[in-house]
Write a structure and sequence with these properties.
By secondary structure, the protein is of the alpha+beta class. It contains 6 helices and 11 strands. A 4-stranded mixed β-sheet has the order 1-5-6-10, covered by helices on one side. Strands 2-3-4 form a 3-stranded antiparallel β-sheet.
Length: 197
């Protein structure tokens, strides 16, 4: 199977008792318990991603406290949580990149994006560190890992530290276009003013 699955989520996130919750747009805050009751928790994400047949996956989370999804603080958690995080990583795919740690904000308002999102978009054009004409998962992760703390400190005087868990083999996310200029078809005024439907 050669398919690759890329999932990107930006919005509000919260970690409560070591479990990550995505807070949807229509959510109404009525105390921390309302996040547990109405947020989309990592178990639901796990179930959704388990249905994706692609073996090569990258999951990108630009939300506060999303580092929980990478399991970086597992030493402080019980074995049950470690096993659950490992199951989630396997079910969710191979690679998870998150904007921040499990207890820190994901800064937004950097050139029209969150800092993490801006770094991901920049990486898709500039992260080809080995010069082979492709952007691979490890190049994306390395670029984001370096750029997010730099950009966040430059803009906000606060270092945002992305988290990641890379499992499995590296693969190409994007093949860069050759450097030669492609000409775009020229539209005449009559073509440009015609409706497209």
């Amino acid at each position: 199977m050669r398919d690759a699955f890329v999932f990107f989520l930006a919005g509000h996130g919260k970690t409560i008792d070591g479990r990550y919750y995505y807070v949807p747009q229509d959510f109404r805050y009525e105390g921390e318990q309302s996040i547990v009751d109405k947020g989309i928790d990592q178990a639901r994400l796990q179930a959704w991603f388990a249905q994706i047949p692609a073996r090569r996956s990258v999951l990108l989370f630009d939300t506060c406290e999303s580092g929980t999804l990478t399991g970086e603080k597992t030493a402080q958690r019980g074995l049950e949580r470690v096993a659950a995080l490992d199951r989630m990583t396997q079910a969710m795919g191979r690679t998870v990149l998150s904007a921040s740690t499990d207890d820190a904000p994901a800064l937004e308002g950097y050139r029209g994006h969150g800092v993490f999102t801006y770094a991901v978009l920049d990486a898709l054009g500039a992260a080809d560190t080995n010069g082979n004409g492709t952007i691979e998962v490890t190049e994306l992760a390395s670029f984001v890992d370096q750029k997010v703390p730099e950009l966040s400190y430059e803009a906000f005087r606060q270092r945002q530290v992305p988290q990641m868990k890379i499992v499995g083999s590296n693969f190409t996310l994007r093949t860069k276009s050759p450097s030669r200029r492609r000409t775009r078809p020229q539209l005449t005024l009559s073509q440009a003013s015609r409706p497209m439907w």
